[in-house]
Design a protein that fits this description.
Blueprint (H helix, E strand, L loop, with lengths): L21 H18 L50 E3 L6 E5 L2 E9 L5 E9 L4 E7 L2 E10 L5 E7 L2 E2 L1 E6 L6 E7 L2 E9 L6 E5 L2 E6 L1 H12 L15 E3 L17 E4 L4 E5 L2 E9 L5 E9 L4 E7 L2 E2 L1 E7 L5 E7 L2 E9 L5 E7 L2 E2 L2 E5 L6 E5 L2 E6 L1 H12 L13
Antiparallel strand pairs: 1-2, 2-3, 3-4, 4-5, 5-6, 6-7, 7-8, 7-9, 9-10, 10-11, 11-12, 12-13, 14-15, 15-16, 16-17, 17-18, 18-19, 19-20, 19-21, 21-22, 22-23, 23-24, 24-25, 24-26, 26-27, 27-28
Length: about 425
């Protein structure tokens, strides 16, 4: 991308020219300056909103700023997958009125109606940093209404009614990866009763029970179930390109409950390797599983993004007293997990060497914590995920010992000598 305005480099003449040409050079330079000055008056390029997703950031947004930027690097759009590093519940930009909200551990921008308390209310759209979005009605800050669509960044889609943030009623799930479509009934986020699912070409149908595919049925029976139970026709066939030579173990499932934030599906490779998707991130699994194929016990997920998790699993979710989630950029969380969320005492180490000790509850930072610079010579108190005032090193050491039963971390190797 060319930066608007005059080029920072202006060509001069040959170094060997006679000094008698200096007046000509001056005249040419003056005309060049006038030409370049005029180009400044041209409309500037539109500035793409800049979102800071770094730890502890206030996620400030600069949209349409008239301030000249000094960077000549092209704008980069990043799809964020994996466990979110942002831990506060709501975030308002300090520079504009754009508001960011957090749903199911995921931050995004909101465009829509509000009530008098500032909560999302009425029709609106949440556009999440991961590339997921929800469009439909809200009541008191929650997905709620007769019709709403939640679409994942990979193209999978859930469409139907919602109640207090949960799928509730007759709903349709469409898988972009393999073209499968499911008609299912939900009660406060849980699949209940009977449903029906079709293959991409709609030539194979299965009956479902409480969200699980159980047995093959005739196309006529599937059509009858769709009409009588869901008041819907059989979906149109979908063409799916050949991809990921894997055999599906279970029908695609998207869990969007208050604690169900893994959005996990699973597949088996031709060599028997198990693949799972957590937080929108596919990866291979090495570890223990139960009779149903759920991750259970100790294991490790190596994700396509370069992230990995190593620790305990219970019922296919991160769970245990000690688990490590390592991001591809070398940031790392070590601590307690419950139902797929950070829960309890944990430490967060950034690639730049800074270290934070924190308390978590259902994925959100709560209460007091402490953070150190890479050389451990500066410390700050942390409250609900936000860095507050600087504190003395003895006070930081006392907080670490009394609250987290941990010593002050060793200075980071990132500290320049």
């Amino acid at each position: 991308m060319n930066k608007p305005g005059p080029s920072p480099v202006i060509s001069g003449g040959d170094a060997g020219r006679d000094t008698k040409d200096s007046s000509n050079d001056a005249e040419l330079s003056r005309k060049e300056d006038e030409k370049n000055a005029a180009s400044v008056k041209e409309p500037a390029e539109e500035v793409t909103p800049k979102i800071d997703n770094s730890e502890g950031s206030s996620a400030s947004v600069e949209a349409g700023s008239s301030e000249e930027t000094t960077s000549t690097s092209p704008a980069v759009t990043t799809t964020i997958i994996g466990v979110s590093k942002i831990r506060t519940k709501r975030d308002e930009s300090k520079s504009t009125n754009i508001q960011r909200f957090c749903d199911f551990g995921e931050f995004g921008f909101y465009d829509g109606g509000f009530n008098v308390e500032g909560k999302r209310h009425g029709h609106g759209k949440m556009m999440y940093d991961s590339g997921n979005y929800y469009e439909g009605t809200f009541v008191d800050d929650k997905f709620h209404g007769d019709h709403g669509i939640y679409r994942w960044y990979d193209g999978d889609e859930q469409e139907g009614p919602w109640l207090e943030g949960e799928r509730h009623g007759k709903s349709v799930f469409r898988s972009a990866a393999d073209g499968v479509v499911e008609y299912c009934v939900y009660d406060k986020g849980k699949a209940v009763g009977e449903g029906v699912t079709w293959s991409a070409d709609r030539q194979v149908a299965h009956k479902m029970f409480i969200g699980r595919k159980i047995n093959k049925i005739s196309l006529d029976t599937a059509e009858e179930m769709a009409r009588d139970m869901f008041d819907l026709p059989v979906p149109e066939p979908t063409e799916v390109s050949s991809q990921l030579l894997m055999t599906e173990i279970t029908p695609p499932s998207k869990s969007i409950g208050l604690l169900g934030r893994l959005f996990a599906t699973r597949r088996e490779g031709s060599d028997g390797t198990l693949f799972f998707k957590d937080y929108g991130d596919w990866g291979s699994y090495e570890g223990e599983v139960d009779a149903s194929g759920n991750r259970q016990g100790t294991g490790r997920m190596n994700y396509d993004s370069g992230n990995y998790y190593q620790g305990g699993f219970v019922d296919d979710k991160f769970h245990g007293e000690q688990g490590t989630y390592h991001w591809f950029d070398e940031d790392e969380y070590i601590g307690e997990w419950k139902d797929g969320e950070r829960n309890g005492k944990g430490s967060f180490k950034k690639a730049d060497g800074t270290m934070e000790y924190s308390m978590y509850e259902k994925g959100s930072h709560v209460g007091d914590g402490v953070t150190w610079s890479a050389d451990r010579q500066t410390a700050h108190k942390v409250l609900n995920g936000e860095k507050k005032g600087e504190i003395s090193l003895p006070m930081a050491e006392k907080l670490a010992r009394d609250m987290f039963d941990l010593p002050v971390p060793e200075p980071s190797s990132q500290v320049s000598s």
